[in-house]
Known about the structure:
2 copies of one chain form a homodimer. By secondary structure, chain A is an alpha/beta fold.
Amino acid sequence: MVTVGIKEVAQRAGVSPGTVSNVLNRPERVAAATRSRVEQAIRELGFVRNGSAATLRAGQSRTVGLVVLDVGNPFFAEVARGVEDVVSDRDHAVILCNSGESPEKESRNLRVLAEQRVRGVLITPVGEDTSRLQRLRDRGVAVVLVDHSASGDLCSVAVDDVAGGDLATSHLISRGAERLAFATGPLAIRQCADRRKGARRALRNAGLPVRSIEDVVVPEMNAHGGRLAAEKLLAGDLPEAVFCANDLLALGVLRTLLQAGVRVPDDVALIGYDDIEFSSAAAVPLSSIRQPTYRLGKIATELLLDECDDPGGHAHQQIMFQPELVVRESSR
Amino acid sequence: MVTVGIKEVAQRAGVSPGTVSNVLNRPERVAAATRSRVEQAIRELGFVRNGSAATLRAGQSRTVGLVVLDVGNPFFAEVARGVEDVVSDRDHAVILCNSGESPEKESRNLRVLAEQRVRGVLITPVGEDTSRLQRLRDRGVAVVLVDHSASGDLCSVAVDDVAGGDLATSHLISRGAERLAFATGPLAIRQCADRRKGARRALRNAGLPVRSIEDVVVPEMNAHGGRLAAEKLLAGDLPEAVFCANDLLALGVLRTLLQAGVRVPDDVALIGYDDIEFSSAAAVPLSSIRQPTYRLGKIATELLLDECDDPGGHAHQQIMFQPELVVRESSR
DNA sequence: CTGTTAGCGCTTTCAA
DNA sequence: TTGAAAGCGCTAACAG
């Protein structure tokens, strides 16, 4: 493996290394003839710029870090797609890290990213403590929170879960429901708590008492959790409508209710959250709340790169997206 | 933003920069007392090693590239999780790239990875042409193919789709089916073609004529495609069993059949492919073929890092995982 | 418009 | 066991 650097290219093109660097970084400052001679030499030698050397010298890289709670989760996978699209358009690269909801892993990730001298970090932080992020910023690394709202000194991009809870619940109420249930994972999860808050707001706005909605908390937010929730519901007086904190839960509820001979939506109306691809294919197509997941990643990245490109003129923004109601048969 | 490098640490600890470097890279060669003094200085100053400088000097980085066809696809998201876990255990980082099935984007990705001087690249190539990869290897970058099998001069990790097709079909036959359908996306997609091949092999092995299975090709491998396929089936003589090239397709078929009053599995048995999380939550829980997706990423990464760590002693391996039959009510 | 030059921060011999 | 010193390949300021 021969090493072909800027020097070899310069020699072959009969110019100095500085000129090759200019062709690479500021082509407009090089005479057209010289430039094409250099470009040809680059092609002939198969030269590829050494990014480490460039980063070292220039003091900044062309990479950004992305730290998510779980890459395997379609929500974050879609966010990652948005991030990658923007970053790749701007000729940068993404370093992907998975914190797996562990603060220790998150810290390790952040250290690796700091070592790599990423220009910025997109992160869904594990807890509420953002002091680790503050330290990063002190090092000159831009930070944007994803799916988590910041408080003024940081950019953030999130989706309004309270509004989503309100949207779902208002919809059920508008169909005539007066006795509701909220099937959810642990309320310690911010998303669950916020969606519940929104549900209660909807009740108040409709003039219904808060006790019109019953919380059904299950440990896991998947289909199995949904089955559990449905079993609890079946054991008592069935509500007229059920709002589930996510679609997986809703699919589990749906299936269990149908098996018990309950008709959806005639006996019980149902709505989920996330609008995952499969929801429309459920036994009864599931109403849901859709989040602009791809845009979350896209906008967050644009914010981040803007901050990097103009650290002085940059004003931090906290962007809150509004979720969207998708009505299908399960609550028609 | 003050810059704290190895020199500042050295000064504070009263040692030379070389010793600090040794503490970082070969701590066993440094006297315990000196080492802890240096470690303390590192902590006090909040020193973080400059990865670019290290890479430049050492000639190799601690990053690997991952190029997938679509990060948003749960299959690749799960592969990415496997990759990230291993890489992070070995104190490396992943640079994530999305080719979006475009050869141009793939080339750009590969160039960026080459610039970053990644130690190796994990890739699901867009086409069958692996010459671009060969060029990478000539540069000293290790390459492992993911979900695509290589031919001797490269490592690869894939899942045997022919075996999967055979497994699914043999299962349906063992239930007594003699008239089958194969619902699939375009046969130009390798996975579809291979699964079909497996299905036909199963027929032969069972002594059934190849015409016992009817191909139902639809343009999109999602729930909508499934609906289309089911409508085609309903328009003719219903088969006794349907094998779908993926679960999304199968869910669409399932729903459409149920709506038409067809009982599953009594009238028509059904099996999908991929065993996505939602399959078990379907109106009729869906039988499927499970692939070791996470392991695919994990093993591929281990192979890659092994090759990097011992380029001489490394023997290329082509690993083919066997998929697994998961029987649920839809074909019970 | 092009060439010269001085490092960026670190690793790694080699010598002490 | 530790220190001194020579670059890794590139960029950017400056001079010509």
